[in-house]
Amino acid sequence: MKGKKIIVIGGSAAGPKAASKAKRVDRKADVKLFQREPELSMATCGYPYYIGGVCDDRNMLIATPAGVKRDINFFINAKGVEAYVETEVVSIDRKKHKIVCKNFNNAAEAAYEYDKLIICTGSASKIPPVPGIDLKGITPLTKLKDADYLRKIRDEKKIKKAVVVGGGLIGLETCEALKLAGIEVTVVEMLPQILPFLEFDLAKLVENHIRSKGVDIIINDGVAEFFGENGGLKYVKLKSGKELSCELAVLSIGVSPNSKLAADVGLDIGEFNGISVNEYMQTSDPDVYAAGDCVEINNLITNKKMYAPFGDLANLEGRVAGENAALGNCVTFNGAIRTGICKIFDFSAGCTGLSETAAKNAGFTDIITAVNAGPDKPLFMKPNPLISKIIADKNTNAILGYQCIGQGDVSRQISTASVIITGKMKLDDIINLDLPYAPPFSLAIDHFIASAHILQNKLKGRMIGISVREVYERVAVNKEKVFLLDMRGENEYEIMRLGIGEVSIPLGALTKRFSELPSDKNAEIICFCKVSMRGYEAAVILNDKGWKNVKVMEGGVMAWPYSREK
Amino acid sequence: MKGKKIIVIGGSAAGPKAASKAKRVDRKADVKLFQREPELSMATCGYPYYIGGVCDDRNMLIATPAGVKRDINFFINAKGVEAYVETEVVSIDRKKHKIVCKNFNNAAEAAYEYDKLIICTGSASKIPPVPGIDLKGITPLTKLKDADYLRKIRDEKKIKKAVVVGGGLIGLETCEALKLAGIEVTVVEMLPQILPFLEFDLAKLVENHIRSKGVDIIINDGVAEFFGENGGLKYVKLKSGKELSCELAVLSIGVSPNSKLAADVGLDIGEFNGISVNEYMQTSDPDVYAAGDCVEINNLITNKKMYAPFGDLANLEGRVAGENAALGNCVTFNGAIRTGICKIFDFSAGCTGLSETAAKNAGFTDIITAVNAGPDKPLFMKPNPLISKIIADKNTNAILGYQCIGQGDVSRQISTASVIITGKMKLDDIINLDLPYAPPFSLAIDHFIASAHILQNKLKGRMIGISVREVYERVAVNKEKVFLLDMRGENEYEIMRLGIGEVSIPLGALTKRFSELPSDKNAEIICFCKVSMRGYEAAVILNDKGWKNVKVMEGGVMAWPYSREK
């Protein structure tokens, strides 16, 4: 009885998962794995925590939860998988079902036959094509050797200033790591905001938080040229002409799929340059599977392809590819919804599903959103703030997306929302959700449910919302005259206020102070408070009293990312 | 234009919510609220945290998130609700649509008419009918005055020893609070385990954790009699004859619905003695609604009635009752799934949906479960343990229940599972769930998804599980001879081991040491490791080598709640 020959190309996340799963479901199979790097099954997502000193033991990045190092001995003895490191697969012969690989150390080439091939070649950092890019001191952070390099910088304590190019998820994690390493950091982002997956207003709040930790952020600007001295980086010149002195630059402007090997042998490649796969993670060649950062997958909301290079998905995809390669197509990976989260200092920022912009781009024409700001726990539990935005389809009431940031428990919020969206649940299904409640964990009416309540109020026409961004642009930028009403208590107003011409009337005093409001019942009035719950209650009262154009500034002062009077 | 008259009885959670919502959706309505207690809208769930000193400001228990005290002025000014405190509704005249109430201070009676009535009379502590129950020093913890009493005890530092009667959710929160107050605590529980909503094995692990904090727990025993001296509690005699000296006893053997007022006027009462309501929170009288701890609600999984006195549900129910009372039936509360969570010292314990026992009782005949133990985060992030059990219907693959305990992020796990269950999602829907992943928050394959993977492996017949409890009973209690195989590394085995006759063979060495295994290929072999991932991998290898009766001890050493050799 001869076993099936399965070859896996790639040894980071999807590859080892696919290989181990294939062997586990078919012990007779002969499973070989080829890996370019010297290490196997590295915790790539952990590199910033090693660099920042959250973890000081490099071995932990390549060890099982029990602390066993995942080297070639581990793979053969515990997993039954024959792994080759520092070995690159240089060509695939699909007709002969054969690959040729080359060892980096001795340059020896060898050929191996396969019945099924699984391509898990991952992704590579995008490198901006600017002069000076080859200077010493400029590095991406994708490989363990990059992490080693940056960790050494931390340990040597010589470098004082760094620039992080790109304000995405990895960029910000790196920014925190470098800051923790005692390095002065500036983040440079081409777009008008960091974390482009977030709505503008929420991204601005994250930006404020990062700045408050002593990190500088430059938006709407990119690197024009790197300048050095004796081969080492000295400063960066931005497109705006601005110059930033620095001895280190970390590039994190995104990754692109390593699909060349697949493309070279004629496998279908998608619009994002990722390998095309079906729900079995099978490429256009039935004997070739692919998984991880090198593929494109289905977006379960839009049913369009997307590029989603996330570590968790790589593992799930690898698992499916491995099982199908071993047993024939029997399990599926249907796609994902683009869920992401990151921690930046004391803040977390997460998203799942579509942002408002992404929903519009995907063809949803009638979108409704709601912003919710508030504490994550009851007052007596020393709560932390959460600010979120929920996005729904007005026609079907389906939840399309959810974003949440703040010092509170964002992870629970995004987890909850991601299941709601995956389960194609509607607004009515979440209004009375039975989530776990106890004071150490959430409010009696959980933040996510409260967000749904606000959305419901808007859908029923009980509340007309206006975003902080629109208020800011109209009042502070365009100097429009708008009647703004701050419903917070006098003491709250004394401590902190926007100072953009608002009138302060505490909610409890409103019914006695109607005379201070515009006599024209058609005049626009914008109410708010700390989180805009009292703002909403004020609007209800004013509507009842005949004012016809009352709006609520969603999220209130807590969601206001612009400068304040105090 | 005369407004609708709405009367709300009860001012704790559901009542204020119903009253505020009614007024908000119908500003013309005349909304009155009657409350027996001196305070309104108290954070009852917060009492243990006030007693334990997590929060020292009593006002925070009756304040809005902005710190405004929710008294009668607040209700009239901010909410438009006329609230009466220390005023009990003593009778209802359904024909005349009238209630009579009585003020506790001046004994004055007054009558008020209603168009719609909302009963939110809450629940009362069950009091065990044992001699000595009236002694000073014995108290439940349901009212703010009980919290005041216990907080005073904390502050006075006179009392040294206390007994908590009842090891449920509130009992354990109280136990932590008293311990934090410097009091020696013993918990007495009638049942064979604390936290009866949890599976036995998980409850035992929580028990171990609480004991490790210096709290004594006595199970399978109840209070027979309280004994005092000069009217004050001196000791407690248990049914077993055991005597515990103590100056304080907190009763937390559960609550029962305050449904007498409703029953007295002929409203339908259910099998749990709660007021019967439909999905509109409407009682058998169309002009009377009810919400909160005084009602029975629908279990969304079993479609049977249940009694679920939880603070979060009270708020959601009150919101629905208020809106329907004001506008006519237009919104529904369809039920809940019995989700609960509590924090006990560094542990959290949560559940959602049906336990295995509850599922059997509800008529599910073909149940499959899986236990998962492991770290909540990657090794390099200083992870905390999570141990969970997932319960599914083998016929439909629907997820019926999920429980999780440990020092890790239980709240996210239970939130995720509660949405899965509410959304009636099946196993296939969660195998590749797109949950938020980053190292500070979860494993690349989240604990919940991994639990689903184990369940899938069992369903596919790839793994035969055996519970720690069954292994313990067979090996340690019945002294059965079973071949047990610990697959952990030698160093792990040196540091900690069960010592119940197991053979230690590290997974990586298994293929070279088959000779140490039973030669009879039909012999039962039970494999395990720290969490039983390696146990599972060993079972796969042994099955392949011809052993036909190989089982995996689910959850491994981490899930073992019994004593160990070391």
Walk me through the structure.
Chain A is an alpha/beta fold and 566 residues long. The first copy, chain A, has four domains: 5-122 and 256-327, 3-Layer(bba) Sandwich (FAD/NAD(P)-binding domain); 138-253, FAD/NAD(P)-binding domain, CATH 3.50.50; 340-459, FAD/NAD(P)-binding domain, CATH 3.50.50.60; 465-559, Rhodanese-like domain (Oxidized Rhodanese, domain 1). The first copy, chain A, has a five-stranded parallel β-sheet with strand order 3-2-1-7-18. Chain A has a five-stranded parallel β-sheet with strand order 9-16-10-11-12. Chain A is globular, with a radius of gyration of 27 Å. The model of chain A has no long low-confidence stretch (mean pLDDT 96). Chains A and B meet through helix 3, helix 8, strand 21, strand 22 and helix 10 of A and helix 3, helix 8, strand 21, strand 22 and helix 10 of B.
Write the layout of secondary structure elements.
The structure is a homodimer of 566-residue chains.
Chain A (H helix, E strand, L loop, with lengths): L4 E5 L4 H12 L4 E5 L12 H5 L20 H8 L2 E3 L2 E7 L4 E6 L5 E5 L2 E4 L3 E3 L12 E3 L3 H13 L4 E5 L3 H12 L3 E5 L11 H13 L3 E3 L4 E7 L2 E7 L4 E3 L2 E4 L3 E3 L2 H5 L23 E3 L6 E2 L6 E2 L4 H17 L12 E5 L2 E7 L2 H6 L5 E9 L9 E9 L5 E8 L3 H13 L4 H4 L16 H13 L5 E2 L1 H10 L5 E4 L3 H6 L7 E2 L19 E5 L4 H12 L4 E5 L13
Parallel strand pairs in A: 1-2, 1-7, 2-3, 7-18, 9-16, 10-11, 10-16, 11-12, 26-30, 27-28, 27-29, 29-30
Antiparallel strand pairs in A: 4-5, 5-6, 8-17, 13-14, 14-15, 19-20, 21-22, 22-25, 23-24, 24-25
Helix pairs in contact in A: 1-8
